[in-house]
Amino acid sequence: MLKVAAARHTIGAPVDFAAFAARQASLLQAAADAGTQLAVLPEYLSLELGATLPVRERADLHASLAALQPLHRDWLALYARLARDLRMHIVAGSFLLAVGPERYRNRCYWFAPDGCHGWQDKLQLTGFEKQAGVIERGDALKVFECDDVRVGVSVCYDIEFPLPVRAQCEAGARVIAVPSCTDTEAGATRVRVGGLARALENRCFVAQAVTAGDAPWSPALDTNTGDAAIYAPMDVGLPADGVLARAGEGQDWAIATLGLAALDASRAVAQVANDRDWNGQLAPAVQRARLDTLEPLHSGDG
Which residue range or ranges hold the CN hydrolase domain (predicted)? Predict the structure, then answer.
C-alpha cells in the first residue's frame, strides 16, 4: 500500500521566500497528518516566487527566470528539510533552472525522507515554452524508489505521450507522478485524458497535481485550471471512471491509498490487460498502415 496526495495548489503572492516556505510547510504538514507517504506538487510552482520580485521584473518572463536563480539553493534546502521532518517523499513541482546563458530546464525535483534528492526534466515543450525561446527539453528518463515502490515523474505535457511513460513502467514504475499547470479547460482536459490513458495502458496509478487560481502579475501563471486527481485503470474492482480521488475548488489535496497488491491480484479477473497486450500493436503486420483498394462485389460473393 502507498498513500499518495496530489495538490490542487492555489497560486499565492508571497512577500518573500520565508512566507512561501511557511505556506509550503503548512500544506505538506496537512498531507503528512493524513498519513501521506508521497506528496506531489504542481509544475511551475517556483514561479509563485516571482511575486517577491519588483513589478517590472516579475512581469517579464526572461527577467523573472534570471532573478529567481539565487533562490534555487533555498528551494532545495526547504524541500529537503520538509521531506526529512515529515518523513515523506515530495515531488516538489518544478523549478526552471539555469543550465547555461539564457537556457533553462523545467526541472522537477524529488526529495526523499533521508534528505537525498533527484530530478526529472520535462521532455516535451509546449507552445508557450517554445515561444519563450530560453527553455530547453530534458534528455533523460528516470524512475525513483518510494518505500519499495518505483515511481516515475511525467511533467505536464509529457503525460500526453505514451512511450516515455511506457519506458518508465517497463523500468518498474507502478505510479506516475504528474506535476501540471494548464491555463485553459482544453489543456486541463488533455492532461487529464493523458493521465487516464497512461493508467489504462500500463495498469498503473497516476497522481496529477495542478495549479489553481489567477496570478495576473505572472506571464506564466496568469490563469490556472483543472482539478488534482489520482487515477487507476478502469477495470473490475476499480473505479469505472478511473478516478480514485479528486480535489476541486476549495480543496488542497486529492488523497488515495494505492493498493498495489490488490491491483496485481485483479489481473486474474480483469476484463482487459492492456499492459500485457501492449506487444500486440508491435506486430509487423500493424507497424504500418497501407491504403487499401476496394473491390466490386461480384454475384456469388458471400
Answer: 2-260
